[in-house]
Design brief:
Layout: H1 9-19, H2 40-48, H3 52-67
Helix pairs in contact: 1-2, 1-3
Protein backbone atom coordinates (compact mmCIF):
# COMPACT_ATOMS: atom_id res chain seq x y z
CA UNK A 1 0.00 0.00 0.00
CA UNK A 2 1.35 3.41 -1.00
CA UNK A 3 1.71 6.05 1.71
CA UNK A 4 -0.63 9.03 1.26
CA UNK A 5 1.10 12.40 0.83
CA UNK A 6 -0.73 15.42 2.17
CA UNK A 7 0.34 18.60 0.44
CA UNK A 8 1.07 21.76 2.38
CA UNK A 9 -0.28 25.16 1.42
CA UNK A 10 3.27 26.14 0.47
CA UNK A 11 3.60 23.20 -1.91
CA UNK A 12 0.26 23.89 -3.56
CA UNK A 13 1.18 27.55 -3.96
CA UNK A 14 4.57 26.65 -5.48
CA UNK A 15 2.95 24.19 -7.90
CA UNK A 16 0.85 27.05 -9.22
CA UNK A 17 3.83 29.38 -9.47
CA UNK A 18 5.83 26.71 -11.29
CA UNK A 19 3.02 26.32 -13.82
CA UNK A 20 2.95 30.00 -14.64
CA UNK A 21 4.24 33.25 -13.21
CA UNK A 22 1.48 35.77 -12.38
CA UNK A 23 3.49 38.31 -14.38
CA UNK A 24 3.55 35.87 -17.35
CA UNK A 25 7.32 36.34 -17.58
CA UNK A 26 9.77 35.47 -14.85
CA UNK A 27 12.47 37.88 -13.81
CA UNK A 28 16.06 36.73 -14.37
CA UNK A 29 16.63 36.15 -10.65
CA UNK A 30 13.47 34.04 -10.16
CA UNK A 31 14.27 30.75 -8.45
CA UNK A 32 11.67 29.02 -10.66
CA UNK A 33 13.09 30.29 -13.95
CA UNK A 34 15.09 27.10 -14.46
CA UNK A 35 12.03 24.84 -14.38
CA UNK A 36 9.97 26.64 -17.03
CA UNK A 37 10.94 24.18 -19.75
CA UNK A 38 10.03 21.09 -17.69
CA UNK A 39 6.72 19.25 -18.08
CA UNK A 40 4.36 20.02 -15.19
CA UNK A 41 4.79 16.57 -13.58
CA UNK A 42 8.56 17.11 -13.46
CA UNK A 43 8.02 20.53 -11.88
CA UNK A 44 5.94 18.87 -9.16
CA UNK A 45 8.65 16.25 -8.58
CA UNK A 46 11.31 18.98 -8.44
CA UNK A 47 9.33 20.97 -5.84
CA UNK A 48 8.63 17.84 -3.81
CA UNK A 49 12.38 17.20 -3.66
CA UNK A 50 13.19 20.63 -2.22
CA UNK A 51 13.91 21.19 1.44
CA UNK A 52 11.36 23.14 3.46
CA UNK A 53 13.91 25.94 3.72
CA UNK A 54 14.28 26.15 -0.09
CA UNK A 55 10.48 26.08 -0.56
CA UNK A 56 10.17 28.94 1.90
CA UNK A 57 12.91 30.83 0.08
CA UNK A 58 10.99 30.61 -3.21
CA UNK A 59 7.77 31.67 -1.44
CA UNK A 60 9.53 34.66 0.15
CA UNK A 61 11.15 35.68 -3.12
CA UNK A 62 7.77 35.62 -4.86
CA UNK A 63 6.20 37.96 -2.31
CA UNK A 64 9.18 40.31 -2.46
CA UNK A 65 8.91 40.34 -6.27
CA UNK A 66 5.12 40.83 -6.06
CA UNK A 67 5.49 43.89 -3.83
CA UNK A 68 8.19 45.53 -5.96
Amino acid sequence: MQKQHYYTDTEIFLYGLSYECPYLRRKNNCLLKGVDSLPFKEKIDWIDGLSEEKKRSIWDQHFFCFKN
